Amino acid sequence: MSLKWVDVLEIAIQLADSKPDVDPRYVNFVQLHRWVVELPEFSDDPQRAGEKVLEAIQAAWIEEAE
After folding, report:
1. Residue 2 pLDDT > 80
2. Residues 6+ positions from 47 with CB-CB distance below 8 Å
3. Interaxial angle between packed helices 29-38 and 8-18, expressed in degrees from 0 to 180 and rounded to the nearest 10
4. CA 37 to CA 57: how far, in whole Å?
């Protein structure tokens, strides 16, 4: 399976699994972008991410963490 920016929920789940000690409410977008791109299954163009998709990933990660 390869992850694209549109796979917001799956990205959030993988971030929650790989960074269990991180509170997603305090992650800035620069760090979030880097972590998404570093996910083993991520295979999309890193330049295609905008603020809206990063906000959606962060919101889904917060929801997943609760």
Report:
1. yes
2. none
3. 90
4. 12
What is the distance between the alpha carbons of residues 11 and 42, in angstroms, rounded to a whole number? 8
**Could you tell me the two tokens for 48?**
């295609």
Looking at the domain assignment, is residue 46 inside a domain? yes
- Check residue 1 and give its pLDDT: 74
Amino acid, single-letter form, for residue 6: V
Q: Rounded CA gap, 66 and 61, in Å?
A: 9
CATH code: domain of residue 42: 1.10.10.600
Q: Global pTM?
A: 0.94
Per the structure, the complete domain to which residue 35 belongs is given by 8-65
Are 36 and 49 spatial neighbours (Cβ–Cβ below 8 Å)? yes
Residue 66 pLDDT > 90, yes or no? no
pLDDT of residue 42: 97
